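For this section, I looked closely at the sequence of one protein beside the C-alpha cells encoding its backbone, which the following lines show:
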Amino acid sequence: MAAPPPLPRSCDTFVALPPAAAGARVVFGKNSDRPAEEVQEVLCLPAAAHPPGAPLQCTYIQVEQVEKTYAVVLSRPAWLWGAEMGANEHGVCIGNEAVWGREEIGDEEALLGMDLVRLGLERADTAEKALTVIVDLLEKYGQGGNCMESHMAFTYHNSFLIADRKEAWVLETSGKYWAAEKVEGGVRNISNQLSITTKIDREHPELREYAKSKGWWDGEKEFDFAATYSYVNTARMTTSRGRYCEGYKLLNKHKGSITSEIMMEILRDKESGINMEGGFMTTGSMVSVLPQDPSLPCIHFFTGTPDPERSVFKPFIFVPNITPLFKTSSPTFGHDDPVKKQPRFQTKPDRRHELYKKHESAAVVMETTKVSRTSITSLRLALLD
C-alpha cells in the first residue's frame, strides 16, 4: 500500500444554517489559501445568452457552452478562468478545496476544480442543481491540470461546499468518483481532506464497486467514503489538531449565534491556522448572508486582498445594471498571456489590480509602525463608515 502523502495546508470553507446561524438566514464563508505572491481579483459577470453548442474556453480545455448563464460574482486567482469562490444572482454560493487521497492524480489538462466552481454558479439556480452540473461535467471532461501559475506542478482532487437560501451540500471527489452529503441545518466545514463518512445522500454509481476493485473496501463493513478513498482516520476528525478540526471547533463555539461578523472573525483567526501566513497564505476571503426570505437580497462580502485580518470585507448585492468592478479587476493580456502559450508559465506578468496595490502600501505602513490589532480593527470600521 502506498504511503500517505504529506498533509497539505490550504483553504477552509464554512456554512451555518438555522438554528446555528442567527436569524432566518444561511451564512457562508471561505478563506482562499494560495501562493503568497498570487493576486486574487473580484469581478462580476452579467447573465448572458449563448448560441446552442458554442465552445467555451476554460483555463485549459474547451467545454460545450449552455444557452443561458446566470450573473455571477467571483473571487479568483487572476491568471485563470474559474474561481476559488463566488455566488450567483440566485443566492447560490460555492467554495472549493484541494484534497488528496488514495487515487492517483492524473497529469493531463482537464477542468480545474476552480473551473467547476464557476461553471456550477453560471449554470444552476439551486445548490443541488449546482452539484449536478459539477458531477456531470466531471464525468464528461474530468479534472486535472496545474493549479498554480508556475512551471512546478501543483495538482489535486477537489471538494466543494455549495449553499443556497435553504440548504447546503458537501461534494467530495476522487478522480471521477464522488460522494455528496446534504446539510439542512447546523454547521459544516470542509478543509484539505475528505470529510464525508457514512452519511452519503448522493454518489457516483460505481463509487463502491471501484473501491472494492482496488481493495480499499471489502463490501462487508459499513461504507465510509473518507476512510475508504483517503488515509483519514475518520474517528478522530473532530478531535485532532488538523485544520478541519480547528474550523469545526470555531463554528461550534459560536453555534446558535453565527452572523456575518462572526464568520469574518473565524476567517481572521490566525491561532487556529484558518488565516494562513507564510509561503501559502490567505490571499482572498468571502462571506455571504443568504436570507431564507426570498424577498430579501443576499449580501456577499469580499476582501479582494490578502490577509483578512488586515482587509476590509466589501459588500456586494446583485442589482440591475451593475457596473464592472474596475478597482478589483486585474489587467488582461489576451493571447500574450503566458498561461495561454506553450510551454505554459514561462514568465509571470504583473497581475495586481488597483485595490491590491493600495493594500500593499497599507500593509507596509502597518508593518513599519507596528499597528496593533485594535488599531487595525478601528481602521476597518472607519473605512466602512
Confidence is low (pLDDT under 50) at residues 1-8. The CA atoms of residues 176 and 337 lie 30 Å apart.
